[in-house]
Design goal:
Number of helices of chain B: 7
Shape of chain A: elongated
Keywords (chain A): Heme, Iron, Metal-binding, Signal
Order of helices and strands of chain A: HHEEHHH
Distance between the termini of chain B: 12 Å
Strand order of the largest sheet of chain B: 3-2-1-5-8
Number of strands of chain B: 12
CATH superfamily of the largest domain in chain A: Cupredoxins -  blue copper proteins
Pfam family, one (chain A): Cytochrom_C
CATH class of the largest domain in chain B: Mainly Beta
Largest sheet of chain A: 2 strands, antiparallel
Oligomer: heterodimer
CATH superfamily of the largest domain in chain B: Cupredoxins -  blue copper proteins
Strand content of chain B: 15-25%
Protein name (chain A): C-type cytochrome
Number of domains of chain B: 3
CATH topology of the largest domain in chain B: Immunoglobulin-like
């Protein structure tokens, strides 16, 4: 004698299928909806990065609405930088590439006006983490 | 190398004195504020008493003579006496009491930066710098003050009081820093659109460090060895920077803009606007009008990216 009668078994199975499908849908929806995740920089601290961006006065050339006084007009605005596909229009905007760019821009794009400012790799790492938080063009 | 104060230290504050005069001036501020506060509270208390419903009638004659005449006369005379006594202890102004071998420092205010000249009678050294006054700790220095265009005023709150700088007239400020450090100062007399961006730093150094600094500043500009700054020196001429700027040993006697002989050794550029490094130098050269609208320096025109970097590297190298 089976533990559950046939009609009851069918009901349980239907309930299980429905529940699983709902969970799957939720998981999928969570993937599409909400805030897209910013690129992660291992070992990079966005808060420190903002301090460094302020101290090095990147604002002398770049507009960064999040940094007080950063209203430069020499280079591109960095608002929304975290969403850009390319750094300086030619370099894929990936963490490792961005760190290398910040440390020595002319090495990656000869002819660029952006100088190497003597950043350490770690400083560039923090700055990269911060730059990826800038996701809203203003 | 002297460093800039960190964000937790006061940038520029009367309430954090670092010199004898500033100490006295700070004390004035506190005592006068305190006395004013006490008088205000006493008046408010009397007002409160007078508003009581069943207040006893007063003797007006007594209150007018006592509270209106005797008390203010006593209080104000006391404060005046105290402040006169303390004022007499300020460092005497004037160049007369300086030791004979002290370097003579003159500061000329311009729209909107400070030209600083040192003349060392002992060695005959003559140096020109900008937006930065380095002084030895614990020694009284006299700054001869003048202005080239309009009236300005020199104020370094942590060290001394204000002194106006008037075209065609030499005034002076005697000051002494008792602690090594970097003290920000600014123009304290409205002098045009960029008055707010007319700052300077007084850097108080240990006497040996000061001597080494003076020695270095007296040297002509070094010739760069690396290719990029060497190229930058050519760009300097291509962009006709020499029409306004002097680099001793390279091009002389143009004083419309700041002397750049050792610009890379200064804490900031643009009169307290930007920290000195190749990035800020490049940004400043490319577009000074965006950073300090109205400044007399025009933007470099038609300068390609690499040349801009080279010029910034050259100026950074001038230490």
């Amino acid at each position: 004698m089976p533990i559950l009668s046939d009609p009851l078994r069918q009901t349980v199975r239907a309930a299980l299928v429905a529940g699983l499908s709902a969970a799957l849908c939720m998981a999928l929806l969570a993937g599409c909806g909400g805030k897209p995740k910013e690129k992660q920089v291992p070992g990079g601290d966005a808060k420190l990065g903002k301090q460094l961006v302020t101290q090095y006065q990147c604002g002398a050339c770049h507009k960064i609405s999040d940094v007080r006084g950063a209203a430069g007009e020499v280079g591109p605005s960095l608002d929304g930088f975290g969403k850009l596909s390319y750094i300086a229009t030619i370099i894929p905007n990936q963490p490792d590439q961005l760190i290398a760019w910040l440390v020595n821009p002319p090495a990656m794009k000869p002819g660029t006006a952006m100088p190497a400012m003597g950043l350490t790799e770690q400083e560039a790492r923090h700055m990269a983490a911060y730059l990826y938080t800038l996701r809203s063009p203003k | 190398m002297s460093r800039m104060p960190t964000s937790s230290e006061p940038l520029q504050s009367v309430l954090h004195p670092a010199g004898a005069d500033a100490e006295i001036i700070g004390q004035f501020a506190w005592v006068l504020f305190g006395a004013g506060l006490l008088i205000f509270l006493a008046v408010m208390a009397l007002l409160g008493l007078s508003l009581r419903r069943h207040a006893a009638p007063l003797r007006p004659g007594l209150w007018i003579a006592g509270g209106g005449i005797a008390l203010p006369v006593l209080l104000l005379t006391g404060l005046l006496g105290w402040s006169t006594w303390r004022s007499a202890q300020l460092v005497p102004q004037g160049s007369a009491q300086l030791a004979g071998n002290a370097p003579a420092i003159s500061v000329t205010a311009r729209m909107w930066w400070w030209e600083v000249r040192y003349h060392d009678p002992a060695s005959g050294r003559e140096i020109v710098t900008a937006n930065e006054i380095r002084i030895p700790v614990g020694r009284t220095v006299y700054l001869g003050l003048n202005a080239a265009d309009v009236i300005h005023s020199l104020w370094v709150p942590a060290l001394a009081g204000k002194r106006d700088m008037i075209p065609g007239r030499v005034t002076g400020l005697t000051l002494r820093a008792d602690k090594p450090g970097v003290y920000r100062g600014q123009c304290a007399e409205y002098c045009g659109t960029q008055h707010a961006h007319m700052a300077l730093h007084v850097v108080a150094l240990a006497p040996a460090e000061f001597e080494a600094w003076l020695q270095n500043q007296a040297q002509p500009a070094r010739t760069p060895e690396a290719a990029l700054p060497l190229r930058g020196r050519d760009v300097f001429f291509e962009q006709r920077c020499q029409n306004c700027h002097t680099i001793r040993g390279v091009v002389a006697s143009n004083s419309l803009g700041p002397d750049l002989t050792h610009v890379g050794s200064r804490l900031q550029i643009g009169a307290g606007l930007l920290r000195t490094h190749s990035g800020t130098l490049a940004g400043w050269i490319a577009d000074p009008q965006a950073l300090k609208p109205g400044v007399f320096m025009p933007a470099a025109s038609g300068i390609d990216g690499e040349s801009l970097r080279a010029l910034a590297a050259y100026l950074e190298h001038l230490q």
